[in-house]
């Protein structure tokens, strides 16, 4: 059972998400916040407040410790075609994950999505459950569910009038012309229908990111400009249609789409959207390597700043390859430490995605890391940097992460005990040195 403090942290996602978005140019975009006062069928009964600017180095309320497990940190994007969650999985989701995105292909119908949302909220009225739609593409599962209601004139076409898409295994996922106002009205209406059918907190738009010609060489410059304008319009129109009591997320702000480095990650979209997902946070599973140290430091700073100023950031670590499975403990330890550098209670969340399909393995059960249960307590300000090492102090300990490609000696600032892997290790006195391996992390609790 959640403690009162646990409820405060989870509800903070809704309370703080609308307060303020900050652009990467440094301009603050204030907004009027209407907190979501209830996660039940009475969602519309909310209280309007006025947003306030968060200090550059925020002071955080104490967070739950071991008693509430990883729920302070975790979200999950999960669901399998043709398969519904089991009773045990429903309970696991509401016990461990603060925010739950029901994947677009879950079950066999929209009715299955809606039933899952109702069950999750019945188990935990404070559960934040999002419905999932693709913004820029039409996957087979949505084509089947929508049938003739989807107008083929909304498909994106090449110079010869042929639909643009990716086909494999006898199925095609076509790109959609999100610049078409008719398509946007249709999609927003679909989202609204789901909001009426079940107690969703809002929507996650997948495949909503700025296009460029490196990612999509088959599109003209004019098409790309129109589509990017369409994405901006879709977020605005969705927020207007759903009102201030619902949240709107998009995927996303990743550095990479496949092997291509993104030219514009779309952080300006957070002036409209509640939050965004970084789908390739920390580790590039398709290349079996971490992002470079400079890139990680930059993202840690950016995500902490955005979250401290009101944007919710979802950080997804994919470990689906055989190489990642073999090195999972190390990858999770390193990437979770980076997540903790960004951590703002109720505003940043992380998932560890070991399997892309629930049928391949226990995705729900494995969405964790050994260090997430450590009783670190609330963060005490933001992180600082010493060479390649980032460190952050918490109420009951310290976390260090070495972004470099060689070992680094760190000087411990207090009497501490090492707890890597969630297991008690050596004890250290203040001023003692510890050799932190390359691209690794160390978790210390106060002695």
Give the arrangement of secondary structure elements:
Blueprint: H1 4-17, E1 20-22, E2 28-30, E3 32-33, E4 49-50, E5 75-78, H2 87-96, E6 99-102, H3 110-123, E7 128-134, E8 137-138, H4 140-146, E9 165-168, E10 171-175, H5 181-197, E11 202-206, H6 221-242, E12 247-251, E13 256-257, E14 260-261, E15 275-278, E16 283-284, E17 289-290, H7 293-308, E18 312-318, H8 322-326, H9 328-342, E19 348-353, E20 384-386, E21 389-394, E22 397-402, E23 408-411, E24 416-418, E25 427-428, E26 433-436, E27 440-446
Parallel strand pairs: 5-6, 6-7, 7-11, 11-12, 12-15, 15-18, 18-19
Antiparallel strand pairs: 1-2, 3-4, 8-10, 9-10, 13-14, 16-17, 20-21, 21-22, 22-27, 23-26, 24-25, 24-27
Helix pairs in contact: 2-3, 5-6, 7-9
Structure description:
Helix 2 (87-96) packs across helix 3 and helix 5 packs parallel to helix 6. The chain has helices spanning 4-17, 87-96, 110-123, 140-146, 181-197, 221-242, 293-308, 322-326, 328-342; strands spanning 20-22, 28-30, 32-33, 49-50, 75-78, 99-102, 128-134, 137-138, 165-168, 171-175, 202-206, 247-251, 256-257, 260-261, 275-278, 283-284, 289-290, 312-318, 348-353, 384-386, 389-394, 397-402, 408-411, 416-418, 427-428, 433-436, 440-446. It is of the alpha/beta class and 447 residues long. It has nine helices and 27 strands. The chain is globular. Strand 20 and strand 21 form a beta hairpin. It has an eight-stranded parallel sheet with strand order 5-6-7-11-12-15-18-19. The model is unreliable at 1-69 (pLDDT under 50).
């Amino acid at each position: 059972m959640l403690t009162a403090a646990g409820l405060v942290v989870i509800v903070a996602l809704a309370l703080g998400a609308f307060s303020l978005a900050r652009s990467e140019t440094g301009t603050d975009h204030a907004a009027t916040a209407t907190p979501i006062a209830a996660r039940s069928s009475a969602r519309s009964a909310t209280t309007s407040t006025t947003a306030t600017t968060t200090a550059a180095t925020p002071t955080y309320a104490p967070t739950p410790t071991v008693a509430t497990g990883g729920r302070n940190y975790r979200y999950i994007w999960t669901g399998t075609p043709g398969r519904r969650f089991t009773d045990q999985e429903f309970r696991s989701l509401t016990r461990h994950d603060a925010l739950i995105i029901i994947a677009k292909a879950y079950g066999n119908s929209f009715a299955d999505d809606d039933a899952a949302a109702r069950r999750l909220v019945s188990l935990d009225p404070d559960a934040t459950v999002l419905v999932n739609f693709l913004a820029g593409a039409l996957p087979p599962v949505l084509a089947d569910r929508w049938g003739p209601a989807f107008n083929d004139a909304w498909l994106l076409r090449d110079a010869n009038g042929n639909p643009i898409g990716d086909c494999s295994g006898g199925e095609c996922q076509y790109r959609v012309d999100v610049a078409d106002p008719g398509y946007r009205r249709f999609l927003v209406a679909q989202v609204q229908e789901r909001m009426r059918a079940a107690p969703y907190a809002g929507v996650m738009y997948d495949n909503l990111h700025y296009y460029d010609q490196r990612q999509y060489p088959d599109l003209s410059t004019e098409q790309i400009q129109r589509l990017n304008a369409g994405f901006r319009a879709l977020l605005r129109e969705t927020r207007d249609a759903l009102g201030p009591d619902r949240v709107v997320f998009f995927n996303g702000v990743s550095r990479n789409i496949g092997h291509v480095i993104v030219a514009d990650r779309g952080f300006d979209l957070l002036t409209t959207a509640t939050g965004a997902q970084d789908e390739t946070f920390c580790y590039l599973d398709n290349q079996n390597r971490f992002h470079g140290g400079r890139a990680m430091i930059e993202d840690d700073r950016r995500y902490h700043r955005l979250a401290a100023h009101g944007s919710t950031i979802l950080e997804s670590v994919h470990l689906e390859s055989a190489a990642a499975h073999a090195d999972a403990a190390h990858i999770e330890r390193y990437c979770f430490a980076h997540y903790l550098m960004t951590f703002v209670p109720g505003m940043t969340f992380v998932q560890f995605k070991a399997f892309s399909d629930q049928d391949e393995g226990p995705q729900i059960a494995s969405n964790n890391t050994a260090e997430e249960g450590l009783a670190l307590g609330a963060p005490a300000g933001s992180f600082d940097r010493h060479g390649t090492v980032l460190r952050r102090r918490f109420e009951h300990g310290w976390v260090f992460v070495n972004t470099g490609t060689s070992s680094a000696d760190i000087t411990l600032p207090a009497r501490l005990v090492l707890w890597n892997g969630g297991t008690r290790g050596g004890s250290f006195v203040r001023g003692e040195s510890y050799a932190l391996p390359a691209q690794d992390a160390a978790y210390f609790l106060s002695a």
